[in-house]
Hints:
elongated; Immunoglobulin-like
Amino acid sequence: MKKITIxxxxxxxxxxxxxxxxxxxxxxxxxxxxxxxxxxxxxxKISSKPSIPDVDIETAPLRGTGYGxxxxxxxxxxxxxxxxxxxxSVQSETRMSQEEKEGKYSESFKNxxxxxxxxxxxxxxxxxxxxxxxxxxxxxxxxxxxxxxxxKYLVTTLPDDLESLDPLKYDNVLTTxxxxxxxxxxxxxxxxxxRAKYISxxxxxxxxxxxxxxxxxxxxxAEEGVKAEISIGGNKYKVNRKIFLKPGKYxxxxxxxxxxSLKGSVHLSRADRRYVELVLIPEEIEKKEVFLTxxxxxxxxxxxxxxLLDFGIVPSQDENLPHSIVVTLKGTSVSxxxxxxxxxxxxxxxxxxxxxxxxxRYRHKPFFVAPDTEDAAIRRETAKIAVQVVRxxxxxxxxxxxFSD
Length: 405
């Protein structure tokens, strides 16, 4: 996952790096499992009609004849022609997918089949080489049993978890799905009873993979039990659910009963996976004064005070107040060539009547600063981190309990 910058009013949304079980992920897994189970039994669905001898190549669902100066060259040419027949099926049966690829997918798909033929095309056969005036002639072909065997293999070996894949590998998965999708049309309805059912199953798999490969995704995360509505482009979504969007910049708003609304924007690229943690602030908060202490290598007290005010907490220098907050930031740096590697740690302690109430410790991943912008960069990053930690911490504790007598 990449880091994301989100502009918001009232609240800070922070991108976090953590595993998160989602209904979208489970949806793909369930669809893939159902498909694998269905196609695992496909051997028993093949028509029981007597087999026609293999020598009758004209009965093969897939075939291609090639020529070459050598036998290997002829086989390669034959396989290329066989691949073209598969691509033709993809073009006719997956027009929507072709449009998303802007017409550039056919050639790469054909090449993928040729390059990966030993993996993709199970049961591929060649006729005995025939000497001709053009050199050697060979026909590559697949029987209906071989086609169905390849189809079964492709579906049962799809990855269980697309989320764990490098997005760059999505195209390889798509190649596998498109190949499986096209192969099923090479077998007649008579040879494969319930073919429509298998096509419907593959449709669902193809739809899920295409969606993840061509879109970006974002999850707005909130604590369990929080009911919030996300509005993006006129559509409504729930929190803690994966939202798939085409690449681009989107404005969003978040509304939840009893909490302040927020607005922001996000930019998604193809195959992006974003996780945004919502920090919701209660709509009505009784203002309370607290004694605030901030220890930091750079001035961030003003930023922290503004964050506290959003939660109805009024910073004060009155040490006699029963409630106090102590924020301590510590920065360390190491010079690396012409840059400095800066690491920031933060402690946040709350006290009630002289006793510790809740505390948190945060350690930010190191960032690099250049000599000419060192001071400004450290100040900016420290303030951003401090505000995010303060907001997240205050939204996670029971403020009513903290301010109770």
